[in-house]
């Protein structure tokens, strides 16, 4: 019994790959330049100033990404082919004679070669896919590039009744596309990577068993 339990545990562990980690590595901190006037009350690198812009612009700042993705793809193809051929070869006369005297009906009586062929094919295929994703994820600025571009990355993990839902967002945004309330739409992100997946009982039930996957790979029909 112990050996059987060990084998079952091994099959279960190897059949399901581990989920990717949703915890993002903290971004590196920018080196703060020395203040020219130590006695001044103004701090250009300070946060929470009265008239300061609250939009993210430095490494480590947080920006809210409104994920609004709608995908609709439809493709339809129809192919019809038809081909027919007919071949008939015969000899009407040979050496000036319509018939050979020794072989009655040997010349011109019937075709020597006669063949016919036909080929027809008809195929039709249609595919349709539709998906909608709406959520909000807080991301951090991981890198500030030139021309006002910033790389942002963020993740959110929610666990309800034993089911875990993970959202990962990563991409490049322009500082001028960030609204005054420090939010930006996911449609304004370049090189966007948006992942939504889960783990738990429901996710496990939606996955085919290991024996079924093996049979699908080796079954030739």
Automatic annotation (TrEMBL):
Provide the coiled-coil residue spans.
Answer: none
> Which domain of life does the protein's organism represent?
Bacteria
Give the location in the cell.
Cell outer membrane; Bacterial flagellum basal body
Q: What are the record keywords, sorted?
A: Bacterial flagellum, Cell outer membrane, Cell projection, Cilium, Flagellum, Membrane, Signal
The answer to whether keyword NAD applies is no
Mind naming one GO cellular-component term on file for this protein? bacterial-type flagellum basal body, distal rod, L ring
| A biological process from GO | bacterial-type flagellum-dependent cell motility
Q: Which InterPro entries match?
A: Flag_Lring
GO MF terms listed in the record are:
cytoskeletal motor activity
NCBIfam families per UniProt: PRK12696.1
Q: Which PANTHER family match?
A: FLAGELLAR L-RING PROTEIN (PTHR34933)
Homology family:
Belongs to the FlgH family.
User: What is said about its interaction partners and assembly?
Assistant: The basal body constitutes a major portion of the flagellar organelle and consists of four rings (L,P,S, and M) mounted on a central rod.
Relate the protein's function as given in its record: Assembles around the rod to form the L-ring and probably protects the motor/basal body from shearing forces during rotation.
Name under which the protein is recorded:
Flagellar L-ring protein
Starting at the broadest rank, the lineage of the source organism is:
Bacteria, Pseudomonadati, Thermodesulfobacteriota, Desulfovibrionia, Desulfovibrionales
